[in-house]
Amino acid sequence: MTDANDLRRRTRELLAAHPPATTDRKAFLEARFDAGLAWVHFPEGLGGLGLPRTLQSVVEAELAAAGAPDNDPRRIGIGLGMAAPTILQYGTEEQKRRFLRPLWLGEEVWCQLFSEPGAGSDLAALGTRAVKDGDTWVVNGQKVWTSSAHLARWAILIARTDPDVPKHRGITYFVCDMTDPGVEVRPLRQITGEAEFNEVFLSDVRIPDAHRLGEVGDGWRVAQTTLNNERVAIGGSPIPREGGMIGKVAATWRDRPDLRTHDLHQRLLDLWVEAEAARLTGARLRQQLVAGQPGPEGAGMKLSFARLNQQISGLEVELLGEEGLLYEDWTMVRPEQVNFTGRDAGYRYLRSKGNSIEGGTSEVLLNIVAERVLGLPAEPRTDKDVAWKDLAR
Amino acid sequence: MSAPATTPDLLYSQEEEDLRAAVRDLLADRCDAASVIARTESGEPHDRTLWKSLAEDMGLAGLLVPEERGGQGASHREAAVVLEELGRAVAPVPYLTSAVVATEALLACSGEEADRLLAALASGRTLGVLAVPLHTAPGAAVPTARVEAGALHGAFTGVADAQVADVLLVPGEDGALYAVDTTAGGVTVDPRVSFDLTRPVAAVTLDGAAARKVAGGAPEAVARALRAGAGLLASEQLGVAEQVLTETVGYLKERKQFNRQVGGFQAIKHRLARIWLDVVNLRAVARAAADALATGSEDAPTAVAVAQVFASRVAVHATEEAVQLHGGIGMTWEHPTHLHLKRAKVDSLAYGTAGRHKERLAELVDLRAPLA
Hints:
The complex is a heterodimer.
Chain A: H1 2-17, H2 25-34, H3 56-65, H4 77-90, H5 93-105, E1 110-113, E2 129-133, E3 136-143, E4 154-160, E5 171-177, E6 183-188, E7 197-208, E8 212-213, H6 219-228, H7 245-255, H8 262-290, H9 298-319, H10 345-352, H11 362-373
Parallel strand pairs in A: 1-4
Antiparallel strand pairs in A: 2-3, 3-7, 4-5, 5-8, 6-7
Helix pairs in contact in A: 1-3, 4-5, 4-6, 7-9, 8-9, 9-10, 9-11
Chain B: H1 14-30, H2 33-40, H3 48-57, H4 76-89, H5 95-107, H6 112-123, E1 128-130, E2 146-148, E3 151-160, E4 167-171, E5 177-181, E6 187-191, E7 201-210, E8 212-215, H7 218-254, E9 256-257, E10 260-261, H8 266-295, H9 300-326, H10 337-347, H11 354-364
Parallel strand pairs in B: 1-4
Antiparallel strand pairs in B: 2-3, 3-7, 4-5, 5-8, 6-7, 9-10
């Protein structure tokens, strides 16, 4: 554990040189990044020390104990979780130096321009076009389900650069400047009343070739890095019992004996057990990762999480009786971040409907488990050898 | 609400994996499905030879018993691994009843008779069962024997593996736990036609049977025994569910209809993926229960209740799906899936149904029933 001890020492030195109580937040975060303690698995000079990712928890524990400010990771989740690992793997040295530091500091918010109205689960069918014009690419198309687009300085974008080859092969990955005059962001109102996401219209947006990530036509492979990192957020502290949505309904159950019925009681206990099982599975997955034995179990976690959130919040609306007839607020707002367990039960019920759609629908995830974990035959494919321009749409 | 102070160790140690491999090898060699099916209708539903190998040769009957009391000094974690493998094979051996439940009852007792019996059960040469109906939940009231001049009278039904037992552990109406040799006069063990022929139940009648007092505190000993049984049963259920999933996936990769592998149809892939997810979750809750029992955690009652509520649903569902997804062949006596289906269904009653465990859980985690 010399690495862990060394990290602990480095973190304490950072805290000693820049005491959180008397240091400006921005200055502290800059010092932390430059000390390689931002993300220890990143290389030296880019906010890291080239250490195993699991050691990040050593730094976080020391910083939390000292009351140090953080970079508000929920606000910049797409940058941290998706853009950064992709830039690290495929970016040029210049791109890494330009983008990673302000990304981690939260000075520049990132969003993701992947999904389109005609390309959801079949993302590789996307139709946004990028056409080369000298040293720049001219981009036209429409993206959707873009959270943080109205706040973002940069976007990771995939666009079609060659319509004459099968769909997976004609895609290129770019960094798109969201301040370009051809970028128009419109709020997309959801069933909750708020607009957590946006539609993004791209009209003759000009992207310098220097902002391409990876090779021309290799964008699908680059995008796999982004998508594989979407749910890697393992680590940190284990979730306590009743840590998620089940805690809300359990608290209501205890506080409001007047609302209880026998039917709800049985269903609540069933869901409590299912939530505890999912929690233990997450804990076991974490133990496997720490022990260096990663298993395929992670593939199922999102399936459990989506179903449980939906069933638990649905039960909660029923439990509330007359209050279940009401809703906190339908006003269209554009929240800076989403909170699945926030607001009232009605909101939780509606928002959780998205949990089985966003980041891979439950149906697609079941296919992935069946094919990659159980080794069952892949879905019949009629699109693999057909040029994108000839696909049915 | 009580919360566990620390996260249980949910992994398998290298020693546990080695133990699993040894048990699996033995069962692959000696407990194939065809012979298990053939045995169910023979006069000897239990496989005494296999038991001898597991218990005497490998020393597995004494895993829960400390070395100073004649056992191996291992824990519930290792016994759980053994049960996973026995469940996988639906092995007709009285491991759960003798080496876990009866043994655990004796571990709650001290004194010469308890020590003597404990060492005998740990050796595997003596088989003991608790004279309590298999479906009794931990903490539930149990029938007791009338005690008259050192002899016992009473009727006990639904006693699993009684027909192969050498000694019965019988709760007396005086609150003491008694040991009765099945060869003693006044003891009748009447095998019943059982739903699970690999763990058959019998009706036991005691009519002035000679008994030795093991210890006082029978209700506590019985509750402890049933709790350990319920907790480790989840590992057996895990083995059952995992095995039918493996079998079904393998079969559906081979089976072709409509000029395709049947396992390639999405309706079927999704069902199998959901079973896989259930099994993944079951492994976590079963390990949590075994670890809580092994460490004597204060959270053990909750971990056991969670494991039983979850495991019963999953094992029954997985085996029911296995029958359906095998199509006609799954309905045949020759195909082993019915062994797993019957075991899973009876396991869902054993040591308390999910409903019983939910009632207990409601108290443990303070999610109380409606007042009226």
